[in-house]
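Task 17 of the worksheet. Students: predict the tertiary structure of the chain below and write it out as structure tokens. Keep your answer in the requested format; marks are given for formatting as well as content.
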Amino acid sequence: MAEPLFEVEGAGAAPAGAGAAVLQQDVATAGGAGPVTIVLRVHVQPAAGKAAVVGRHGDALHVRVAAPPVGGRANAATSELIAEVLDVKASQVELAGGERSRTKRFRVRDVEADDVARKLDVAIEQSSRRGSGGGARSRARR
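Model answer:
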């Protein structure tokens, strides 16, 4: 079982050393509870051509963005890509940590946890079909 890429904020933090099953249970439990706030772990590859979901990078979503890591431009481009992939408004996505790091955390408000999990699975599956050469952003939305 792959580790989940996000945690549900306020869903009872998992104890230190807890496995993926505990976090997945939190996600599954919160999925039926209506809109929640999630914290998505993202590994960003800036200045990398077209913006696209590449796959997984450990317990993070691996994405590429065209914007360089200067003046917050790569962070803004990553936020836009996440909003597009999850089909949410840009105002629902905010950088929660890792401003100057490739490994970042983005907070996404008012989403259904099970919908987020499904959309991320679809985006990762589509990225594996097109290979590591990047690809159209629109395919990640389905």
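Marker's comment: The helical segments are 20-31, 73-86, 113-130. The longest helix spans residues 113-130.
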